[in-house]
Every structure is written in structure tokens, then in C-alpha cells.
Write a structure and sequence with these properties.
This protein has 438 residues and is α+β, with helices and mostly antiparallel strands. The protein contains nine helices and 14 strands. Helices cover 30% and strands 14% of the residues. The strands form five sheets. It has a four-stranded mixed beta sheet. Helix 3 packs antiparallel against helix 5 and helix 7 crosses helix 8. It binds N,N,N-trimethyl-histidine and fe (iii) ion (FE). Keywords: ATP-binding, Iron, Ligase, Metal-binding, Monooxygenase, Nucleotide-binding, Oxidoreductase.
Length: 438
Amino acid sequence: TPVQDEDALKELIAAELSASRDRSLGLTTDVLATPELLTQVSPLMSPLVWDLAHIGNYEELWLLRAAAGGDPLRPEIDGLYDAFEHPRAERPKLPLLPPDEARAYIAEVRTRVLGTLEDVRFRPDNPLTAGGFVYGMVVQHEHQHDETMLATHQLRRDAALPDPDPAAAPADGGPGRDEVLVEAGPFVMGAEDDPWAYDNERPGHLVDLPAYYIDTVPVSAGAYLAFMAAGGYDDERWWDPAGWEWRCSSGRRAPGFWFREGVQWLRRRFGRVEPVPLDEPVQHVCWYEADAYARWAGRRLPTEAEWEKAARWDPAAGRSRRHPWGDDPPDATRANLGQRALRPAPAGAYPRGASAYGVRQLVGDVWEWTSSDFRGYPGFRSFPYKEYSEVFFGADYKVLRGGSWATHPLAARGTFRNWDYPIRRQIFAGFRCARDAA
Ligand code: AVJ
Ligand code: FE
């Protein structure tokens, strides 16, 4: 019966709320001394104590007040934690809740939310709660901030997080650097009836693409080094004009966190220095670097639609899958997600995670830059608020797809869209290449 379904959904929601909170606390309470919660390691990032209370304030706004109709708990702090009122650079100067108060506040919000969960009805005629939407939105919001907090940790100089030994990534020798043909024709792009998909993933719609080739694996650090060794950073021919300007004004000549010692390239990863692993997908490159590499290699970045068709379309069945491998949820044999390791798996890993076209690692490991600007799909309707997606639509932001090793499986469905400025390198982003078939 529907009621039983609703109870099962509520149990799942309670479990997911608790899992995302464990993760947030693990990234703040357990591993950090108080002063480090308060400092800002880069003007690009918030102090971790801001993320922490913002997570709870978002939950108060959407679950306590909007979904359950509850009374405001701390309305006077709404402004402090409104991302649009205060850009990241000015957050450390705000009268933020100190760490203990922030933890107590988010715990109190959570207690009240769980207290109301039983009485909330997920009526199909209320789009906010239908299918548990707003609960899914809040859980995914917390996980997205957790990934942002990991990027903050990566920017710190000192080792802060335990570095779990990654369970060996399943591989079969890998297809190497290879490409597959995706034949011309239409496919279904976007989410059709996924209750936890965001507004920017909807509506599902047909997109007809010309034939193209796409890489079966992400571009490796070793391949990227070849671009560097060939003088790629010094050759204006490979760069978008705005990218060349970024290259010259920033002085960058290598991916983020890389540095050279004699003839060897090293990198700093969560405070530890290690040789750059040549077989790992390259990480911490901006869109301009990805674009320049692709042009140097005689190729180009895939469009967002090309990425999604290669990831989700099943040409034999004539339908789009939820994930590259099918509709089963992600697990450790299919994709490197959920912060199991603090790094991508080698390019070519996860044969069981391949898409219908045989393309690997589309989900997990590194976010993949696409050539596309972030825009609404035909028929887009903002829901439940314009500041999640709509205010970012336009030519300023490029779309990233597929999630990284730091992305939680709940936000790793094949329709999920991420976006950032083309100069950004602190996110866990790499890329793969494509080319026209004609
Ligand atoms: C989708 C990752 C670009 O972090 O700015 C967090 C997610 N939205 N709080 C971001 C988000 C509101 C968003 N990204
Ligand atoms: Fe947020």
C-alpha cells in the first residue's frame, strides 16, 4: 500500500540524513582542532564552520519550516548563512556561530526534523514533498557541501585527513587510451521520473546528435605531462583567447598542487607529498587547461549531451539508463565514489562500471569538464527556488559531469549536473576528449 511505501521512504530518508551528518562531522569535529574550523585557507572557500552551520540552516529552512510547517528555530541567523548575501571571501569576518554552537544548532535542527518526519505527508499533489523530494534535496545539499569541505582540506598545507588505503580498484588491464564511436541519432537526455533529481536535470527530452568518438577513459596525468613536455603551456595556438589570458596572468604551467623537484613531478595531496601517479586521471585542471590539451591532441571536449549519451543511452534497448552500467545503484565494483579513497582510481579501472558503449569511469574518480555552458533544458522550470540553478544559467559557467571520488552515490545519477567558472581548479575535476566522426 502507499502508506507502507511512505514508511519505507521515511526510513530511507532518516538513514540518509544520518549518514550525511556523520560525514559532515567527520570532516569537521573529529579531525580538526577548533582554530582550523575558523580560518579561511583560500578566498575561494568558506571557513569550515560556515559550511557546517549553513548545512543546518538550509535544513531548517527546507525541512523544518517549509516541509513540516514548523516554527523558525534561529531566524536571526538566516542572513549569515545565506550564500547570496555573503560571498565566500567575506564569510570569515561575519559573526558566525562558534564551532560548539554550530554543532549544537545543527543537532537541534536535526532532532526537530526527525520529530516531524512521521507526520509529514508525501502527497503527490505537493511537489515539494512528493516522493520525498525536499528531503532528497537537503541530503544531497549536505553531501555537496561535504565535497566542498574536502576541497578546502586539500587546499590546506598540513596533513589533516586520514588517508584510507584504497581497496584495489577493479581493473582488467584497461582498454588503454582508446575511443569508441557513438552512432548518430536521438537519445533521451535528462531525468524523466526520478523524484530526487534537481530542477536543472529536468525535463527529460530527446536530443539528436551527429556521430562522434569519445575516449573510453579520462585523460591520465601521464598523457597530460606529454602536453606539458611538448610546450603546451607556452603555445598560444592551443588556447581559447580567454584561456591564454588566464594562462599568462596566472603564470600556471602545471595542474593544481603539482610542483617540480629536479626532473620529477610531485604533488601535494591532503598534506602529503608524493610523485604524480602517471596512470591516474589528471585532477585539478581548469576548463581552459582541458580545452587546450584537447586542441593540442587534435581533439575537443565533449558537449554535455555527448557525455550523457555515452554514459546513459542503451542503443539496443532504446532507453536511457540511470547509471552507465544500468539502473542498479553504484557499488565499489562499479565506480570510485563517496570518499572511500582520497584520490581517483587509475584510468582504465572499473570494467563493470562501463556504459553500453564501453566507456569507463564516467561516474566517479574525477568530475569531467564538458564544452557546454550551464543552461536550462527546453521547458525548464525553476523548483523549488531560483538560486539553486537558474541564477547561474548563461555563458559564465561550464558544465561538469559524472562526479568525483568525493561525490556521494546519492548525487551520482547520470543526469546530475555540476557547474563552475572555467578558471576554477580547486574542485576534483579532470576531463576526457571527443571528436567528430565525420
Ligand atoms: C552545484 C556544486 C555548484 O556548491 O555552489 C550548495 C551546490 N548549492 N549549496 C555549489 C550547492 C547550494 C553548488 N554546486
Ligand atoms: Fe549550500
